[in-house]
Amino acid sequence: MSMPWLERTGAVLQMYYPGQEGAATAAVLYGDRDPGGRPTQSFPADDDHHPVAGDPRRYPGVDGTETYAEGVRVGHRWYDAEGVRPLFPFGHGLSYTSFAYADPDARWTGDGVDVAFTVRNTGRRDGVDVPQVYAGPSPDHPLDQPVRVLAGYRRLALRAGEERRDGVRVEPRPLSSWDAGVHDWVLGTGVRTLWIGASSRDLRLRTSVRVGG
Questions:
Q1: How far apart (Å, rounded) are the C-alpha atoms in residues 60 and 55?
Q2: Which end of the chain has fewer surrounding CB within 10 Å, N or C?
Q3: Could you read off the pLDDT of 20-53 as tens digits, one per residue?
Q4: Residue 24, by phi and psi: left (phi above 0), alpha (psi -120 to 50) or beta?
Q5: Among the listed residues 31, 44, 40, 37, the one whose alpha carbon sits nearest the alpha carbon of residue 1
Q6: How do the residues of the chain divide into helix, strand and coil, expressed in percent and rounded to 5?
Q7: Which of 196, 105, 125, 118 is nearest to 163 (CA)?
């Protein structure tokens, strides 16, 4: 997969299935609206660096059977575990302005984690940002766990120069792992690392919290 045009391209606009909403495309292209969408998958850099590359059992399959052997390393989790840089990471997105993050804080409440941080629009025009919180593995789990997992996110519309203290509520499920032995979700207790960023690869803040106590 060769994409020589990419180095000469400042941005790619993917509208997926806009239907009759073609006006939204024009609004983004002409700068009347800030692009606020974020992709829910990672785009590979080439045909040799993605989760099923080089393994015919996984794709296209052998003798009519495809083997799903990725376990918990699905999507951006595979790229993180293998240290492979995707073309466009999970949660990536551009804006006509820029944003700065600061002052992370996390608190276990007994039934989840409240993550707080400050976001400032550092550009000259209004814009939309989508801060994302990712959680690291539990030190108490013997189960296989991802390097990071999306734990929550917040969509913020900020005026030029505006600064806002906001947060993300992380429910127990993103902090849990499926235990086939007990056939249930098990909360990952202990000190958990949390990252706050603009995508799975644009991680700007880091903090930690003790889960379960």
A1: 8
A2: C
A3: 768 888 899 899 999 988 999 999 988 889 888 8
A4: alpha
A5: 44
A6: 10, 35, 55
A7: 118
Give the DSSP H or E segment for 127.
strand 127-129
- pTM comes to 0.92
The pLDDT value recorded for residue 6 is 75
Using alpha carbons, select from 131, 126, 75 the residue that is nearest to residue 100.
131
- Return the pLDDT at 2: 62
The count of residues in the chain is: 213
Instruction: Read off the tokens for 210.
Output: 């003790």
Residue with tokens 């997926």: 16
Residue 194 has pLDDT above 80, yes or no: yes
Rounded CA-CA distance 53/15 in Å is 27
Please state, in angstroms and rounded to a whole number, the distance separating the CA atoms of residues 102 and 100: 7
* CB-CB neighbours of 35 under 10 Å: 20
Interatomic CA distance for residues 163 and 184, integer angstroms: 41
Helical ranges in the chain per DSSP H:
22-29, 76-82
> Edge-to-edge strand order for the sheet containing 149-153?
149-153, 132-135, 190-197, 203-211
Distance of alpha carbon 207 from alpha carbon 196, whole angstroms? 8
Contact of 167 with 118, CB cutoff 8 Å: no
What values do phi and psi take at 82, rounded to 5?
-90, -5
DSSP class of residue 178 equals E
Find out whether 176 and 151 touch, Cβ atoms under 8 Å: no
